[in-house]
Each structure stands twice: as structure tokens, then as C-alpha cells.
UniProtKB/TrEMBL annotation:
CDD domains: Tryp_SPc (cd00190)
Molecular function per GO: serine-type endopeptidase activity
Pfam families: Trypsin (PF00089)
GO biological process, one term: proteolysis
Protein's UniProt name: Uncharacterized protein
The organism's taxonomic lineage, starting at the top: Eukaryota, Metazoa, Ecdysozoa, Arthropoda, Hexapoda
Keywords: Disulfide bond, Hydrolase, Protease, Serine protease
Length: 265
């Protein structure tokens, strides 16, 4: 029988800092997502759309630039409703320790149907005060607008990127941007692997043995065919790739409508 574990939200990490307390959601498995496990260090020049999300100068999540003023991340990253004044995005640098441009946030919006217990509709739009335009190594990524097709003879290869820890045995995040390749998989296959946890139409999965993303990569991109296909949402407790990774599906009708209404694309 599979181990019964719980999903720990970011609110628990920052509860003592911000004076907020929330109950841990229980999805039947602990999912401390965010580490790029068995990944490769990459440069920001080839991935200029990736940003880091900070609260009170604490790195908490990754995100993806989709317009000159908007980035997509996971709703769980901002679920505890921090004041936008203390939220910022840093882009243009592959390393946490140096470089990059700090963009102050004016507002953020969680999907109105976001369900922290089921991890459904796990998407947020972050709006900055200024503009992403005009900076070196900072740019947008196109959104996936149609459903992926799956053919056993022609697997769809996608990559996940972020600054999460590189092992399930440590919570220390990576200093450098890292990337790992995975294969997108049909929803019914993913649902079978995660049963009884529900894989909804707003989710998409990808997997490859011994590769994963876990605790600082949440909110980061799943990129297929050079398009933003998913947003890192949940994964294997130990970050060992035992279960498929779960992403918020950008092409789902409800999420696409949310993006159009709040980011205009």
C-alpha cells in the first residue's frame, strides 16, 4: 500500500513571518515539490522568461513571463495572501546570488476556483509595477493553446526548469538555474499512477524515472514545443520520480479564460 502523506502549503513556511496560520491540506500524499533532481545547469539566455518569486527577500517559487507586465506562477505560492508590497520578481539571471533585475509587484490574482486541498486550478497571475521590456535576457514565452497529442511511437518531450533543491534529502535550493527533460503523459495514465488522488482536467502530467522537481521549483514552467504548457504544482514526496509530476494545464479552457481576463492574452 502506498504511503499516506500530506501536501504542505507555503503558508506553513511563512506563517510565522506573516502571522498567518492555515490547516495543512491533505491530498493523500506529501508533495514538497520544487527540486530539479538529476537536472543540468543552464544559462538564462536560452530561458529568458523564467523569473524567481520572492517574499521579504525569501526565494519561494519560480514563474514565467507571459506579457510585458505579467508572469504566471502557482496559486499555492501566494495562497497566504501576502501584501503585494513585499512580493517581487527577479529576472535576467540564472544565479540566485548575483545579477538580475528586481521587479516590484503591484498585484496578483489567484484563479477563483483554486482549491488548495485538491491542488486544482493551481495558477496565479502576478502583475508588476513597471515593465519587463528593454532588459537583457528577459522576455516572454508563448502559451500552449491546444491540447497535447500523445503517440507511443512519438513521445512529447518537455522540460521543467527552476532553482529548487537538487535532492529530496535537502531543502537547500540550487544557486543555479537547472533544467530536466521529461515526457508528457496522457491524463488517464497519470490518474492511474496517482489514484486515489484526483487528476482533474486542469492538470497535465509528465514523468521520467529518476528525475523530478520538488520544493523551490513550484510555480515554474513545463515547456513543450517551446510553449508554456504547465505550471509546476505537485510531485513525489522524495523527489525521486516515483510518481508523475503534476502541473496546472495552461491550455485547459478554464485556465486560458482566466489568463485572457487578467493578462489580456
Amino acid at each position: 500500500m502506498r504511503q499516506v502523506i500530506e501536501l504542505v502549503g507555503l503558508a506553513l513556511v511563512f506563517g510565522s513571518v506573516l502571522g498567518k496560520n492555515q490547516t495543512e491540506p491533505n491530498v493523500g500524499r506529501k508533495v514538497p515539490i520544487g527540486r530539479i533532481v538529476n537536472g543540468t545547469a543552464v544559462s538564462i539566455e536560452n530561458h529568458p522568461f523564467i523569473v524567481r518569486v520572492y517574499i521579504y527577500n525569501f526565494f519561494i517559487c519560480a514563474g514565467s513571463i507571459i506579457t510585458s507586465k505579467h508572469a504566471l506562477s502557482a496559486a499555492q505560492c501566494l495562497d497566504f495572501k501576502p501584501n503585494p508590497v513585499i512580493v517581487s520578481l527577479i529576472g535576467g539571471s540564472a544565479t540566485q546570488a548575483s545579477g538580475g533585475v528586481d521587479f516590484r509587484v503591484s498585484s496578483y490574482t489567484l484563479h477563483p476556483c483554486y482549491d488548495r486541498r485538491r491542488m486544482d486550478f493551481d495558477v496565479a497571475i502576478v502583475t508588476i509595477r513597471s515593465s519587463f521590456d528593454g532588459y537583457q535576457n528577459i522576455g516572454t514565452i508563448r502559451l500552449q493553446t491546444t491540447e497535447l497529442t500523445y503517440a507511443p511511437s512519438r513521445p512529447t518531450w518537455c522540460y521543467v526548469a527552476g532553482w529548487g533543491a537538487t535532492s529530496g534529502k535537502t531543502k537547500t535550493t540550487s544557486e543555479n538555474l537547472r533544467l530536466v527533460w521529461m515526457q508528457a503523459m496522457p491524463q488517464y495514465n497519470c490518474a492511474s499512477e496517482w489514484n486515489p488522488f484526483e487528476i482533474t482536467p486542469q492538470m497535465i502530467c509528465a514523468a521520467l524515472p529518476n528525475t523530478d522537481a520538488c520544493s523551490g521549483d513550484r510555480g515554474g514552467p513545463l515547456v513543450c514545443n517551446e510553449q508554456l504548457t504547465g505550471i509546476v504544482s505537485a510531485g513525489d514526496e522524495l523527489c525521486e520520480g516515483q510518481y508523475p509530476m503534476i502541473f496546472a494545464k495552461v491550455a485547459s479552457s478554464a485556465i486560458r479564460l482566466f489568463i485572457r481576463e487578467n493578462a489580456g492574452i
